[in-house]
Amino acid sequence: MSEIVMLNIAQLVAGFRQRSLSPVEVMCAVLDRVTKLDPAVNAFCALDEEGAMSAACEAERRWTRGEPCGPLDGVPVSVKDLVAVAGFPTRHGSWTASPDRESVDAPAVARLRRAGAIPFGKTTTSEFGNKIVTDCPLTGATRNPWDTRLSPGGSSGGSAVAVALGMGPLSLATDGGGSIRIPACWSGVVGFKPTFALVPAGNAASWTALSTLGPIARTVRDAALMLDAMTGANNDGSSEGGSPAGYSAALDDGVVGLRIGWCPAPDGVPVAPDIAACVGRAADTFGALGATVIQTDVAPIADYYGNGRMHSVQWCVFFAQRVRHMEAADRTLLDPELTALADAGARIDTATFVDALLARHALGASMETFFERYDLLLTPTFHCGPPPVPGLPGHLRSAPLLTAWCNQAGLPAISVPCGFAGDLPTGLQIIGRRGSDALVLRAARAYELARGDFPAPGPELQLPGDVEIAP
Questions:
Q1: For 200-234, what is each residue's pLDDT tens digit?
Q2: Each residue of 234-264: pLDDT tens digit?
Q3: Where are the strands (E) in 194-310, listed by range?
Q4: What per-residue confidence (pLDDT) applies to 305?
Q5: Which pLDDT tens digit goes with each residue over 126-181?
Q6: Distances in Å between the alpha carbon of 164 and those of 177, 337, 390, 457?
Q7: Residue 93 lies in a domain
Q8: pLDDT at residue 320 above 60?
Q9: Catalytic: which of 80, 122, 131, 193?
Q10: How far is it, in rounded angstroms, from Cα 407 to Cα 380?
Q11: Active-site residue, from 179, 211, 239, 243
């Protein structure tokens, strides 16, 4: 049996059922892993070791009685620090957020608990999820598990790094323009952004009307099982807003007969040659699996880039709204990059904002037409590799070229590791029409099986000696 912390959910649950493994043993192994590895990567901003061990003991007693409370009973899960977890503060990566502990779980977290999962820690984020790297004044910089000199991406970088390094098999994250898929791509794990609002957000609903909650995991099946729990889908043939028998039910049905569009580089997107080669080989795999793969320019996406400011206009305005009631003293505590976003948003007039919303509507309508011809669309997840820590280079400060448009259209999209560009992992993005989450996951699973196991980063991590992680 492989190292406990790298087991998938099916292996964990089988071990619990057969009494060859216990939830206490697993939680101890995960917490020990965090203690050993997190100082080098800074993926966690809060832990509840006592509460996690208590919950693991309860799960162990249920398994001993043969009465697990759900399909994830005893499975550790971390949660991005934009999402409320009872007993933890929700700091949003910000000195301006309240340090008080939450008394109520966000709906998705509550559903994970009902399925038996154990939330044991909060993962790092950029401040209020404002950018595609994970650094902020409150928690400092999070580092890539493959090369600690580099960023893992963001804003869900802590979640992606935690999963990649075996610091828990699952993490609940958010994605407003690529914040699940980009760190999944650069960290070598699976990251799924569901159809907009498929996973309930409750009082922390997407204030940007772009962001949605989703899973980060090491395998597509684990991501699907987590999505089952968060949407209320289950394995008895019923669901609450999920697919008829859960998103994990038909994962192995393959892609034979599907018509798949393949867009290697939308007009104006400079995809690095080594990334293009990796993703091109992944696209070829679908043809070998029985799908019809057709290279296409995807005109609606080209129109989106031609519009130029659709995503950035909305993003800036939303952040301007976020900070407009802050006291002047609090504004001085903000990440300067967030302040710049908010200031830019405050200068945008109503007509420009409405134009961006109209362009968003037009993009959604265009993609509905596109998906009348194709079942799925393949693209690279990101056009280049990760930047150094800390900070975000100027050329990456615009809307992420290959991911943000999916948020504009509300489409489900997944990043699956598809190889290495140099020494770093890169990702294939699989996109479907609104509501086709099960099909996107099924295609990702077919590719994953054909690809074989993807390696994990080694646990021998070194922090560059001249850079500190936290302020």
A1: 987 655 667 899 999 999 999 999 999 999 998 65
A2: 544 444 444 446 899 999 999 999 999 999 9
A3: 212-217, 259-262, 292-295
A4: 63
A5: 999 999 999 999 999 999 999 999 999 999 999 999 999 999 999 999 999 999 99
A6: 21, 27, 20, 7
A7: yes
A8: yes
A9: 80
A10: 16
A11: 179
SS3 label, residue 451? helix
- Counted residue by residue, the chain has a size of 471
DSSP letter for each residue of 147-199: -TTB---SSSHHHHHHHHTTS-SEEEEEESSSTTHHHHHHHTSEEEEPSTTSS
Catalytic annotation on 155? yes
Q: How many domains does the structure of the chain reveal?
A: 1
- Whether 462 is in a domain gets the answer no
Instruction: Establish if 386 belongs to a structural domain.
Output: yes
| Alpha-carbon dihedral 113, 144, 388, 385, rounded to 10 degrees | -90
Identity at 221, one-letter amino acid code: R
Active site residue 80: yes
Domain hosting residue 400, numbered range: 11-300+359-451
Cβ atoms < 10 Å from Cβ of 39: 12
- Write the CATH number for 83: 3.90.1300.10
Backbone φ/ψ region at 278: left (φ over 0), alpha (ψ -120 to 50), beta: alpha
In a domain? residue 28: yes
Of these residues, 78, 94, 151, 155, which one is catalytic? 155
The closest of 81, 102, 107, 105 to 93, measured between CA atoms, is 81
CA 242/CA 240 separation, integer angstroms? 5
Residue with tokens 């580099």: 150
Q: Residue 125 is which amino acid? A: T
Under 8 Å CB-to-CB from 238, ≥6 apart: which residues? 244, 245
DSSP-assigned states of every residue in 76-103: EEEEETTS--TTSB--TT-TTS--SBPS
Joined together, the tokens standing for residue 65 give 């009685």
